[in-house]
Design brief:
The complex is a heterodimer of chains A (122) and B (346). Chain A is mainly alpha-helical and 122 residues long. Chain A has one domain: Orthogonal Bundle (Helix Hairpins), CATH 1.10.287.3510. Chain A contains 4 helices and no strands. The longest helix of chain A is centred in the last third of the chain and has 32 residues. The longest helix of chain B has 26 residues. The chains are: A mainly alpha (122), B mainly alpha (346). Chains A and B meet through helix 1, helix 2, helix 3 and helix 4 of A and helix 1, helix 2, helix 3, helix 4 and helix 8 of B.
Chain lengths: 122, 346
């Protein structure tokens, strides 16, 4: 029942979205964005899953199979695993940028409330 | 929250209210998104669907074309190398943004000698002008006001730019942990560091530059937590990390461009392929992976330590001007306040 994973991912995304929409504490907004990021990791890994499959690794194939047979056989999707791998690192870096902005805002406005940041309002 | 008495302090505390806004609208938008996502996800391929052609292609070409037993590595650094190339520079852009946002004014690298030069110039162009009685009196009063030890003992330690200590804005200096934790870290850190490099070197097994770089960052953070900033300051400084970061980027650009020049397409393999199951199997995949290790390890370290060391803002609040002047010894106190400001909401 991999659908449960998909729906959990959707729920995580919605929790993150709700946090970003309704909270005004900048740190919590960044946490909401991180939650939305995390939901995509879960989605990628779940989409890559195949029933009764092996990992997409041709090293040490199961008994009686050659690596080439395994490559044509039942394995999980390696492309989506690749997406997940790169997304995690990019997610960390982007969260770093968000937090740097938040720290600067806190220093400048002496507040973490997004509603206090009005200086650039056009 | 600070009372009215505390409001007169130089820096008002960071407020940490917890306002909620537009509950119903947020709920409505979230519910609509949930419906769209659920509809889409329910129609997504399930666990019994056949693999998409691109995945099957990657699986079947990994061994014959790249001599790799690890299709994920082959995709990341080989057949989808251009995509990873773009993501690497996205990471670099994020790192540069963090550096731009967090770095205070540049540390002074040498004495400018404004005051000495000014005196010399004065003597040269205006040798006849001797201090008159009024000026002498002012100077005496000035030095009396500044105290017996000269200008440095007074409220303005940096009255002469020549006296400013070099590199004064160094990040906060944490103290080390107990001997038990330090010993554990001493034992664990080398093992972890080797593991990080192993993940990259053994490219025919799961691993690669991304997880390897994250492991190396973990080693640095362990050392930071255990021994404090000063002990790792020799390694964790912008000159080292940023140079390594750009060297990694250069290695990746060179790897990809040589593929274009020698083989006619970006990220094509131009190295001889070794037997499957050896360190050199995979050709440029391994080179790219090593570049990515440097890129990720140094990039994430720069981000983390930039955030840990972030100091005053560019635009001082009221009161910050005095603080800027008042501080050399009280620098640490100011940092503590700034640290509280940064972490106040977490």
């Amino acid at each position: 029942m991999i659908v449960a994973n998909y729906l959990t991912s959707a729920a995580l995304f919605c929790m993150g979205l709700y946090t970003v929409l309704t909270r005004r504490n900048l740190i919590k907004m960044v946490m909401g964005l991180s939650l939305m990021e995390a939901s995509t990791y879960l989605l990628f890994v779940s989409l890559a899953y195949r029933a009764r499959s092996t990992a997409p690794v041709l090293l040490d194939p199961p008994a009686g199979q050659s690596p080439t047979q395994l490559a044509h056989g039942n394995t999980a999707d390696p492309v989506l695993q690749n997406f997940c791998l790169t997304a995690i690192v990019i997610g960390v870096a982007v969260t770093g940028v968000f937090l740097a902005v938040v720290v600067r805002i806190a220093q400048h406005y002496r507040s973490l409330d997004a509603d206090d940041v009005r200086q650039m309002r056009g | 929250m600070a009372g009215p008495g505390k409001a007169t302090e130089k820096q008002p505390p960071v407020t940490d209210r917890e306002p909620h806004h537009r509950h119903r609208l947020g709920l409505l938008l979230t519910a609509a998104t949930a419906v769209v996502l659920a509809a889409g996800y329910l129609a997504a391929p399930r666990e019994d669907a056949p693999l998409p052609p691109v995945a099957r292609y990657a699986l079947t070409t990994a061994l014959p074309d790249w001599k790799l037993l690890e299709p994920v590595n082959e995709i990341v650094y080989g057949s989808r190398g251009f995509d990873t190339f773009g993501e690497t520079f996205l990471l670099l852009a994020a790192v540069v943004s963090v550096i731009m946002l967090t770095r205070p004014r540049e540390a002074r690298r040498g004495y400018f000698g404004e005051e000495t030069a000014g005196e010399r110039e004065q003597r040269k162009y205006d040798p006849d002008q001797h201090p008159n009685a009024e000026e002498r009196e002012t100077r005496v009063a000035d030095s009396r006001e500044q105290g017996p030890d000269g200008p440095r003992s007074a409220a303005r330690p940096d009255s002469s730019p020549d006296r400013e200590r070099l590199g004064r804005h160094g990040p906060e200096r944490a103290e080390s942990l107990t001997v038990v934790a330090r010993t554990a870290i001493r034992l664990a850190a080398p093992v972890l560091a080797v593991t990080g490099c192993y993940l990259v070197a053994w490219g025919y097994a799961p691993g690669g530059g991304f997880p390897g770089g994250a492991v190396l960052l973990g080693v640095l953070l362990l050392a930071y937590a255990g021994f404090g900033r000063r002990r790792i300051a020799r390694v964790v400084r912008p000159a080292v990390l940023e140079t390594a970061e750009l060297a990694g980027a250069l290695l990746i650009i060179g790897t990809e461009l040589l593929g274009l020049l020698l083989e006619g397409s970006v990220s094509a393999n131009w190295l001889p392929l070794a037997e499957p199951g050896t360190i050199l199997s995979g050709g440029v995949v391994q080179l790219f992976s090593a570049g990515e290790l440097i890129e990720v390890a140094t990039g994430l370290s720069i981000v983390v330590f930039a955030l840990l060391g972030v100091r005053r803002g560019w635009a001082p609040d009221e009161g910050d001007a005095e603080q800027d002047d008042a501080v050399d010894e009280s620098d640490a106190a100011g940092d503590a306040e700034d640290g509280a400001a940064g972490g106040g909401g977490s």
